[in-house]
User: Fold this.
Amino acid sequence: MNTQLTHAAASTMPPLKPTAEDLALLAGAQEAELAARDLYDAGIAATSWSDEQATLMVTMREAHESYAQSLGAMLGVKAPGVASADVTAAHEGGMSSADAAAVLAAAGELEAALVSAHLGFLGQLVAVDGAALVASILMAEGRHGTALAALAGATDLAALLGDEA
Amino acid sequence: MDQNMNTTPRTLDRRSLLRIGGLSVTAAALVAACGGQTEVGELGRVGNGEPNPALPDVTVDDAARLRTSASIETSIAVALETMLAKGWLDAHTEAVTEFVAHHRAAADACNAMAVEVGGEAWTCGNARLDSAYLDVILHRIEKGAEATDAAAAIEPSDDPARDAANLVWALEELSAETCQAMVAQVASAAHRVTLMELGVRSGRQAATTALAINPGGYLPSDAVVEVPAEGDSPAQTPIPLPAALPSTFGALGAITYIGGKGDENGVRLKLNFETPSLNSMVYSFDTCA
Assistant:
């Protein structure tokens, strides 16, 4: 007898394509990412940066735009295409500071907030495609937090791993 | 053309009779050997060996996936503990000790989820990861490789601390990728969240390790550790330096590890870690020895 390899019954597997409820959650995720992009724009313009800092800030700004674009591709015509007013209001103070260290700290808080928000979305998403995309985004944003802490000069483990929040 | 070729009657000489007789005996022996054991439509078997063993049916369900995740985390924790015990990670003791605690907790969390979906907890490591990757790398670092008929012996690592730190980085990446990969495979949204909480932590540990190995290495570059040729020793395979942010999105690709002392041509051990697949899954019939 040959070994039979089977996957779990199809009826127990979630759908691939986002459900109507998923689309609303993914729209919220896109709004958050567009707000993050705009906040990075504000932070980059607010103060002067070293070459290393500027490279990393621009890289993260571009990353958030990529996340918004990927979510938009999944949402199609239902993509909101506008920044979240709530996310902007919560972080624009720190991200507009003239002090580079303050902006780096605010960016770290922004990334932590995005990770938390995406975990919230992930806990409600049903379909596989949306969940996989959100997972890949929040994985990168978690690492952004470590990079920002190191860029701000942190050397202790708790700060680098985000345990201080 | 010889017109008589088709009209000449063939005669049965003594040699032909012997040939036909021999074939008949052979055929009769084969039929006898197969007789009584062959159903209509099945191929007959020659000889009396044991039948092929019946392999168990395997199902890749959430229990198997989560048991596999637990096994990966346990293998990583054991590997980190082994390297700490050997003193190869003295420069990173505090961090790696904390990483071990995280991976032990991650294994427990994955096992709890596996039990929730009807599976059994798996407290061993991952046999495939251990035998094909970790045992090989740790042996190469500590003892090198023995000579074979085709290749000269390879010495122990020229820099165990470097190789061990790179292995820590690779294993943190593997943990992060495994958690992320499982999100697209498990059905429960709550389990996806738990997996990503664990995965993001491993990802941050990977980024922290990358920066410890490669200070200022936030983004990917072509920077490598090079050991040039010296005397009779050839140049060694360059070792890429890891980056804290290796890609825009969380990646699921192969994680390349290069380490150990190079062979007689300077070629170091190179292995690609990958997220779990069929031959590294922990199925329901597997038992933890």
Summary: Confidence is low (pLDDT under 50) at residues 1-8 of chain B. Helices of chain B lie at 14-34, 62-85, 93-116, 127-143, 160-183, 189-213. Strands of chain B lie at 58-60, 224-227, 236-240, 255-259, 269-273. The first helix of chain B runs from residue 14 to 34.
